[in-house]
Amino acid sequence: MNHPAPAHLQGPRIKTGQPSATPYQTLSVKRLTPVLGAEIEGIDLSRELSALQFEEVSRALAEHQVIFFRDQHPTPEQHLAFGQRFGQLHRHPAAPHAPGLPDLMIIQADEHSPRANGEMWHSDVSCDAEPPMGSILYIHTCPPSGGDTLFASMYAAYDALSDRMKQYLSGLTAVHDGEHVYRGTYANLGVQDKSLYPRSVHPVVRTHPVTGRQALYVNRGFTTRILGIPADESEAMLRLLFTHMENPLFQCRFRWEPHSVAFWDNRCVQHRAMWDYWPHTRSGFRVTVLGDAPFYQPSSDHATT
User: Fold this and answer.
1) N or C, where is the chain less crowded by C-beta within 10 Å?
2) 18 pLDDT more than 90
3) CB-side neighbour CA atoms (13 Å) of 49
4) Domains of the chain by residue range
5) What single DSSP character describes residue 9?
6) Confidence class of residue 305 from pLDDT cuts 50, 70 and 90?
7) What is the CATH number that goes with domain 25-290?
8) What residues are annotated to the active site?
């Protein structure tokens, strides 16, 4: 009689598939890890993309979750125009923006900064009712070393859960709150606080509207409570999920160079910026593309009954 192997002898925690076999015609793609991330060559973001280029950049994002471009020199207007190809732009509820360009968020940390953007694992502005689909960060000034950004695949984090845990999480929702994240955060830059910051309820597991894949959708930055279960159980479950999704197995790390661009899908990726370069400067701009309300479509294997 055959018995199943013990859990620790059943192979790797995650088993990655291969990217699409369909070749690209207008760009080249170099994967960073088997799980996520790819560097894109053959695209100039200071020029308007052709219809085929746009289609292939969109496919690369869907296949690799976060994509990177080197040696780019877009003007602010070209940066905004690139973002607008993917949809309506999202305006940050708190962060400062470039003068006269409210959709162009300033990203900067230097020797006078009390903090740097994104030092905790998060999905951008997940407290919004319709959180951003994607973020396009252009860094033009880098420190001599450090300042990397880490990205983590929430597809991989979900796939690595046991079937029992997937069933438990199916259909649960959680609170994402911007109050504790944004109040007073930009006071040193002269930004006045709003009377109210966004607070929303989203599924703990969301279904990606393009790929149909399931992704974990709670994060340390914004998620404060899982609804429908006792408070202590919520606290314990969030602690477990946060620790799980930060496993290096699910990550890639991007080393910035001057005039690089990162474009990540907030629906299936979390990220964390490393502020290890003080007193040097890291500076650029971010354009963010509006998304839609997260939803969960249970798979046949993990549907609630």
Assistant:
1) N
2) no
3) 21
4) 25-290
5) G
6) very low
7) 3.60.130.10
8) 122, 124, 271, 286
